[in-house]
Amino acid sequence: MSLFNIFNVAGSGMAAQSVRLNTVASNLANADSVASTPEAAYRAKEPLFAAVRAGLDGKGAEAGSEGVRVLGVTESPAAVTSRYEPGNPLADANGYVYQSNVNPVDELVNMISASRSYQNNVEVMTTARQLMQKTLDLGK
């Protein structure tokens, strides 16, 4: 792996963590939302990542395809909770509203983790840039 591939790998990691931060922001924004049916209630979003590596034998992967790929964003299978609020305009015929399945504590942990991973990838890019600069300075 050349130094130039390091930028591709770290860049793909930064892009993946950016998707993760966006899903966390969406989840936190909808943490207290309610709906009139369990099907309409907001469900927490979770990004799905996959490692992408060039094949050791040169087959099955394109050159420079190392890194992280976002396969998609899935919804959490956790159950939504119901609350008895007969005065709520969104209440169903029995007086229940259905709250999202977002756990704010888990989302804050995800946010901190994604932020630190993003920062680590930035540090990798900075270090690689400094190493390249030092290599160029050897000829002076």
UniProtKB/TrEMBL annotation:
Occurrences of domain Flagellar basal body rod protein N-terminal (ranges): 7-32
Record key words, sorted: Bacterial flagellum, Cell projection, Cilium, Flagellum
Xref: NCBIfam families: FlgC
Top-rank lineage group of the source organism: Bacteria
Residues annotated as domain Flagellar basal-body/hook protein C-terminal: 94-138
Oligomer and partners: The basal body constitutes a major portion of the flagellar organelle and consists of four rings (L,P,S, and M) mounted on a central rod. The rod consists of about 26 subunits of FlgG in the distal portion, and FlgB, FlgC and FlgF are thought to build up the proximal portion of the rod with about 6 subunits each.
InterPro entries xrefs: Flag_bb_rod_N (IPR001444), Flagellar_basal_body_rod_CS (IPR019776), Flg_bb/hook_C_dom (IPR010930), FlgC (IPR006299)
Record family assignment: Belongs to the flagella basal body rod proteins family.
Descriptive protein name: Flagellar basal-body rod protein FlgC
Subcellular location: Bacterial flagellum basal body
